[in-house]
Amino acid sequence: MRLERLRVTVIGAGIGGLAVARTLALRGADVTVLEQALEISEVGAGLQISPNGFAVLRALGLDETVRALAVQARAISLRDYRRGEVLRLDLRALDNQDYYFVHRADLIEALAEGARSAGVRLHLMQRVSQVLAGEPAEVQTANGASRLADLVIGADGLHSVVRSALNGDATPFFTRQVAWRATVPNQWGRGPEAQVHMGPMRHVVSYPLRGGQTLNLVAVQERAAWAAESWSQTDDPMALRAAFADFDHDLRVLLEAVEEVHLWGLFRHPVAKVWQRDGLVLVGDAGHPTLPFMAQGASMALEDGWVLADSLAGEGTLARRLARYQARREARVRRVVEAANRNAWKYHLSFPPLRWAAHAALRAGGTLAPTRMMRQFDWLYGHDVTRDVA
Q1: Which of 81, 187, 328, 342 is the Cys-Cys partner for 199 at CB 3.0 to 4.6 Å?
Q2: Domain annotation for the chain: domains and CATH numbers
């Protein structure tokens, strides 16, 4: 069903907001995106798009654009913080090898241009102060303006105004983990693989971006000291280097190249109980924030956007179509969130005998059953929401 009569306001011009805006506009909806920033940009650096997320980019006609901006991943190398490689996962063994490392700003630019070309209106400097459910729903901005829409989509991230309107305010749980994010020039010629250096209560993930010219770094440490949940706060690179001073020489050299670094606290948010009601609906982190230990935040937002548009194009009242969207997505995103919650401890084993035993098991699995090691991710990477039937 075409959606020419559907007036949609999307709050937030991040990955989820821009993706759902293009998807709906291509189906005929009248779509406006409100973004509080001065320009369409994104704080942060690299991200990973696994085959399940890339399937949505392909369906949106943006696959070749993103391929040109990204690095196709060939492997994931799990490494002991002092003893070298423990397990190497060959991503070429996947049935679908569309696994990419991309700079967040590059993906945002591709999605923004895709949204504009589909007829989406992007309005900047629009800070939303309140949303009101109804027929129509209402969006109020800080400058006193008001906008009515048949559907308001909350793609406004961790501190979503729309989530609060649907679920009330909730206090997230500090995981006692913080993360640093930085980029450095790839002066060592690192190839198209992600390396995960695993140590006691800490790990570092690194992979190339932008044609291999840049390396993205995400370093996570368990600690009691609280840090705010914001990607925009900076930290002293010396603090990052000190936290990983006992890691191997190669990683220490990498961290020496860091000149600017951002720090944020990792908080666990529950999956929203209410995703949609009376003309309001959530996508991406607004509905189901996930810790970064499955690298699925961007891909889940892309999947949400596609399934929401596909559900809206189905039969029935708007309320029935929105309920269908939640029903199609909730179990899958809960599984991803729970998997990410479980993954953190695997990288941070502190008790030496336990760490050695775990690493020995990984080595054995990689040697004796490498295909099985990769097949454990089929439920995630092998799923294509663009082929689902509503």
Answers
A1: 81
A2: 7-71+98-171+272-344 (3.50.50.60)
Q: Where are the beta strands (DSSP E) in 230-371?
A: 234-235, 261-268, 276-277, 280-282
Phi-psi region of 386 (alpha: psi -120 to 50; beta: other; left: phi over 0): alpha
Question: Do the Cβ atoms of 8 and 23 come closer than 8 Å?
Answer: no
Pairing of strands 7-11, 30-34: parallel
Angle at 384 between CA 383 and CA 390, to 5 degrees: 110
Residue with tokens 């020496």: 256
What is the biggest distance separating any 2 CA atoms in the chain, rounded to whole angstroms?
A: 64
First and final CA of the chain: distance in angstroms?
A: 12
Q: pLDDT tens across 181-195, in order?
A: 999 999 999 999 999
Is the whole model's pTM more than 0.90, yes or no? yes
Angle (deg, nearest 10), helices 51-59 and 297-312: 40
Q: Name the residues annotated as catalytic.
A: 207
pLDDT tens figures, 20-42: 999 999 999 999 999 998 877 65
Contact 148, 138 (CB under 8 A): yes
